[in-house]
Predict the structure.
Amino acid sequence: MEGDGIATGGGQVEKRVTPLELFFDLVFVFALTQVTGLVSAQPTWQGLGQGVLLLGVLWWAWTAYAWLTNTVDPEEGLVRLSLLGAMAAMLVASLAVPGAFGEDALLFAVAYAVVRIAHLGLYGLAGRGDPELTGAILRLVPATTVGSGLLLVAAFLDGPAQGALWVVAFAVDLSGPLLGGIRGWRLSAGHFAERHGLIIIIALGESIVAVGVGAAELDLDAGVVIAAVLGIAVAAALWWAYFDVVALVAERRLREATGVAQLAMARDSYSYLHLPMVAGIVLVAVGLKKTLAHVGDPLELVPAVALCGGVAMYLVAHVLFRLRNVRTLSRRRLVAAGALLALIPVALALPALGTLAAVTAVCAGLIGYEAIRFAEARRQVRHAPGATA
């Protein structure tokens, strides 16, 4: 089945992201907001760990549907209705995020299981008459069902036992495409890259919302205004780091690859390596909220790790993304990530506004250096035939 598309130079119709997919992604926006709120309300190592686990399983549900709507037309009748039902279940899971390790643990687990089972059912319909796709779906069933089942069991536990079972459940679910292989899956490269680029925009939007909401709750003195402006500058740098060149090159490499190599690249570069990018952005949002609330005081350890470590995680994910796609190492982004990690102990003594200014300086310095040092290569990438910059 073909979704909405545009005509390519060869007269073929290329699949594009549909309005229903964007509508589906709005629930993921709310999920990100809930995770940011959870960690902000519990700025401890336990709260941070729970937030990362919740983000991980919610991401894995989202990326499962990204593969699904890349294969089938989401606007068709039964698929459309099923996706809307999955949206409702995802919304319930997102609502349960604040209590997912407490009183709402069972509600979260049941809603999450519904989201994953609906995904398998829809893929089963898509695979009718296609033995290779059917086989790929069947190979995914064990990891999906075991992972969801372990979350249901974890709902009846608490403390370290519950956390440990969550880790196992997430690891099992995450291992499904690795252990089951990727033979038989279907991929529309341009659509897949576009969908993941849009989810990065959504995550960055959450960081901007965090700045806006945090500032709106405070008296708008000079410190808050400066912190808000610096927060937007950091978000802009993260946007630039991905969309200026990286996203263009990655999409072209994905288009050029074929067969199993293309599927493996999509799995590794987008399903796996975009998770630490999104997680890094969410952590930055947590750090920004805490900075706005206490611009003149030093950040506590976990918010400092969230702010500095979040940007570092995002950049390291970019390094791995490039290494997987282009087979080259971006040492400058590794250096910037190292500098941000070195800021963490300093942040415990500096006023939060000073730490945010230092993070902004590192981000701006990296972007400025890359734009000047690689100006010609950047121009060639952005203005090559077929570029969509």
In short: The beta strands are 5-7, 13-15. The CA atoms of residues 182 and 263 lie 7 Å apart.
